């Protein structure tokens, strides 16, 4: 599972960075929020960011490892 941001709704308030700077960052070049590529995400921190996000635009997304189940 990876966290994803619905950028159409994100207000770039950067609250998620305050909660989980190891997961979320702001890209100065694109002016958009990004999820940092990590081998594993800290579930507690991401859950807190999801709860906090004022636009309710962070969600977990299932990543298919290609195993097919
Ligand atoms: S907390 Fe939500 S609205 Fe704020 S920057 Fe993060 S994803 Fe965007």
What does this structure look like?
This protein is of the alpha+beta class and 69 residues long. The chain has a single domain, classed as Alpha-Beta Plaits (2-Layer Sandwich). 22% of the residues lie in helices and 23% in strands. The protein has a two-stranded antiparallel ribbon with strand order 1-4. A hairpin with a 4-residue loop joins β2 and β3. The longest helix is centred in the C-terminal third of the chain and has 10 residues. It is globular. It starts with a strand and ends in an 8-residue tail after the last strand. The model has no long low-confidence stretch (mean pLDDT 94). The structure holds iron/sulfur cluster (SF4). The site of iron/sulfur cluster has 14 residues, from α1.
Side-by-side strand order of the widest sheet: 1-4
The best one-word shape is globular
CATH architectural designation: 2-Layer Sandwich
Q: Count the strands?
A: 4
What is the fold named in CATH at topology level? Alpha-Beta Plaits
- Order of secondary-structure elements: EHEEHE
Q: How would you sum up the major sheet?
A: 2 strands, antiparallel
Structural class per helix/strand content?
A: alpha+beta
Mean pLDDT: 94
Total of domains? 1
Q: Which stretches are poorly predicted, pLDDT < 50 over at least 5 residues?
A: none
Which CATH class applies here?
Alpha Beta
Considering DSSP H and I runs of 4 or more, what fraction of the residues is helical? 10-25%
Radius of gyration: 12 Å
Bound compounds: iron/sulfur cluster
Number of helices: 2
